[in-house]
Amino acid sequence: MHFTSEKRLDDSVLEREFTLGEIPGILWTPASTPAPLPLILLGQPGGFGLRQMYPRLLARARYTVAEGFAAAAIELPGSGERPRSAAADRVGADLRRALAAGESVTDDIIDRLILPLVDQAVPEWQAALDALLALPEIGGPVGYSGGVISIATRLAVVEPRISAAVLFAGSFVPRAILEEARQVTIPLYVLLQWDDDGNDRQRSLDLFDAFGSKEKTLNANLGGHTGVPQHAGEAAGRFFARHLK
Description:
Rossmann fold
């Protein structure tokens, strides 16, 4: 991990950009860190990139730091300044054609869109976690917050250092991930926007049902993809406070 910039956003938040090999990332911590902090990994949608998502990520990071956590995000494969994948571009075009025609998105498109992303992103998140936990100001435990929900599901299966997760149900879910979800046992808090046009609501409900966790909560609200109400985010914060502090 190589830090490339550092700035105080105000008297309470320190923002540091870093690279991990060729992967960009951002770490937010309290400007004054009295003890090793628990860490929240901030997931984001695929295809947009850190720069485009920065205002929303920063808002989430400020709230996370105010609650006594460190927060970190990394660039997903094929997003932002990272190299594009020709295969991902082809399946993206297939997805747009299906949506424009009002057709159902097939399992083949979902698999080609999501599974390669999961296969690449999960080891990258694990490498980032190795580097972040080596910093003296970060001691764990670790939570994951956000999307892509299939990435979070795989991480919850293979990464024992993640103790709890808040998942955003707002992306397509391959059937193979439904099977992996049965192996997830950590506490979960799932946010679902009921009227999200780009999300298969039933597949999201099936995924929630498949999770093997003994403690799992579904917070479903009316509204579109970006309309998560403030009270739902506050409840997610209380969930992390219970499980990571």
